[in-house]
Amino acid sequence: MTTADSIEQAIAELLPHFGERLSRSQSVCEHHGHGEGYHAQHAPQAVIFAETTEDVAHALRVCNAHRAPVIPFGAGTSLEGQVNAIEGGISIDLSRMTGLLELNTGDMDCRVQAGITRQDLNLLLRDEGLFFPVDPGGEATIGGMCATRASGTGAVRYGTIRENVLGLTVVLADGRIMRVGRRVRKSAMGYDLTHLMIGSEGTLGIITEVQLRLHGIPETMAAAVCQFETLADCVETAVQVMQMSVPIGRMELLDDVQMDACIRYAKLDGYRPIPTMFFEFEGGPEAVREQIATVEAIADDNNGSAFTWSTQAQERAALWKTRHAVFWACLAYRPGYTGISTDAIVPISALTEMILGAKHDIEESGITAPIVGHIGDGNFHTVMLVPPGEAEVEKARALDHKIIARALSLGGSASGEHGVGLAKIGFMPAEHDAVALDVMRTIKRALDPNNILNPGKLLPPPAPPC
Ligand SMILES: Cc1cc2nc3c(=O)[nH]c(=O)nc-3n(C[C@H](O)[C@H](O)[C@H](O)COP(=O)(O)OP(=O)(O)OC[C@H]3O[C@@H](n4cnc5c(N)ncnc54)[C@H](O)[C@@H]3O)c2cc1C
Question: At a CB cut-off of 8 Å and minimum separation 6, what does 329 contact?
């Protein structure tokens, strides 16, 4: 059992090493006690700003000896209560670890420190003709993205962070430094510890370096928009694009309410607040033209209107900036309200039933909840906008649970990308059988026997014996 004393003892022992890089300021601790989700803040007792793998190893050796909880912190953009220090402890902030340590342009890979953001990495890569494609909406760090198994609008073509990580440097709970993975596209050598760490949400180790796959910036890129009178036609278009294996770059659905919020927030002229699809096409000029023609024909068949496309970089950038700003557009739609995001995912063939069902659930609940989706993956979010008050949050939770239950009944998952944190722990037994949960707990105990790494997250406590 952690005591306040053991945390204080760890802090006293860490102070000589970290000096000013160990902060006990109330505002710094509070900032590290929450992410971008709606969960109540739990501030750690101290925050350490790490700069090297050895810093992290030293901190973990000390915290493990004192049984003091440690919460890794990237940019704090996670949405499910992942960084909240619910048992107190010490937050290890990696946002100063921003180095590009190695760039192999010929092999199209690189090694970065875990605190670099994807935006900063792409600025460093731009002149090499390369880019890193995983693009969650927040300004997340690469380490945080690995820890939450993040993805974004580019996943339909390039996969999630899981498909784009080749190897990791991880500091284990006892301070040992583990290097896993090689600079190769595949390897059949033993247990895949790299991918065990992907999605572990800071509960198995702290990632300090990441070996990433990179991609060439495509020769031609075009963006297109198409609007639909009905949500069913809009979703059906997406399903058919996927079923026809069009190598789409990105494909995002915005329902009528989300479009209304975006039109107001981004001052989008010339669009109506009706279900809308944003597309991006990539490749050689001929291939792009072919993809556009195929998708336009599919949209036509499904009563799409106003199919417009452009290869102009500025127009493309404006469109995708609008898409990445949907969360803020939602918050501006109902000032003073909190946005609680759902993150269900289903197999493509179940998408129409799922999204129309979710829309029905939303209307029945009376909650304003725009729908926006990484529709090509079967993943979509509803941003439930709730006024202050626990009763309203409860109503939103009930809607979230209804949508998740629907997704699970269609063979889907409670979270396509935001992760478990605190919010989705209750759904772990619905998605994983008792044996799988037992194996997960065994792994956790083996790697972190003192349960210091982000305790209380991801894994539900075992059911009491009958
Ligand atoms: C507006 C908005 C849009 C978003 N859109 C998307 C989206 O499209 N797709 C998506 O996947 N997510 C999205 N998110 C959620 C969020 O951006 C991701 O979960 C992101 O991967 C979190 O990264 P972070 O650096 O902020 O991590 P943090 O929030 O700091 O941490 C997240 C978790 O990872 C752990 N952690 C952090 N760094 C490390 C490390 N180096 N080693 C081990 N554990 C670590 C933490 O302990 C915590 O459990 C969005 C969030 C916002 C606010």
Answer: 258, 261, 262, 264, 265, 266, 322
Q: Whose CA is nearest to atom 4 of ligand 1?
A: 137
Q: Kindly report the protein residue whose alpha carbon is nearest to atom 18 of ligand 1.
A: 78
Instruction: Determine which helix (DSSP H) or strand (DSSP E) holds 408, and give its type and residue range.
Output: helix 390-409
Q: Which of 78, 135, 201 to mutate to test the pocket of ligand 1 (most atoms within 8 A of CB)?
A: 78
Q: What is the atom index within ligand 1 of the atom nearest the CA of 152?
A: 8
Q: Is 373 in the pocket of ligand 1 (CB under 6 A)?
A: no
**148 touches ligand 1 (CB under 6 Å):** yes
Q: Which segments of 169-255 does DSSP mark as H helices, in order?
A: 193-197, 231-243
Distance from the CA of 398 to the center of ligand 1, in angstroms? 24
Residue type, 79: L
Q: Tell me the CA–centroid distance for residue 406 and ligand 1, in Å.
A: 25
Angle at 292 between CA 289 and CA 293, to 5 degrees: 85
Whether the Cβ atoms of residue 131 and residue 125 lie closer than 8 Å to each other:
yes
> Is any ligand 1 atom within 6 A of the Cβ of residue 79?
yes
Question: Which residue's structure tokens are 């992410």?
Answer: 35
Q: Give the C-alpha distances (Å, rounded to integers) separating 235 from 154, 239, 277.
A: 18, 6, 9
Tens digit of pLDDT per residue, the chain (466 long)?
A: 568 999 999 999 999 999 999 999 999 999 999 999 989 999 999 999 999 999 999 999 999 999 999 999 999 999 999 999 999 999 999 999 999 999 999 999 999 999 999 999 999 999 999 999 999 988 999 999 999 999 999 999 999 999 999 999 999 999 999 999 999 999 999 999 999 999 999 999 999 999 999 999 999 999 999 999 999 999 999 999 999 999 999 999 999 999 999 999 998 888 999 999 999 999 999 999 999 999 999 999 999 998 998 888 888 888 888 888 899 999 999 999 999 999 999 999 999 999 999 999 999 999 999 999 999 999 999 999 999 898 999 999 999 999 999 999 999 999 999 999 999 999 999 999 999 999 999 999 999 999 999 999 999 988 777 6
| Amino acid at the residue 394 | E
Domain 4-93 has CATH 3.40.50.720: no
What is the number of the ligand 1 atom nearest to the C-alpha of 416? 11
User: Domain 100-216's class?
Assistant: alpha beta
Nearest CA to ligand 1 atom 21: 145
Q: Which fold has domain 220-409?
A: Vanillyl-alcohol Oxidase; Chain A, domain 3 (3.40.462)
> Is the C-beta atom of 94 inside 6 A of ligand 1?
yes
273: CA distance to ligand 1 center in Å? 30
Q: Where are the domains of the chain?
A: 4-93, 100-216, 220-409
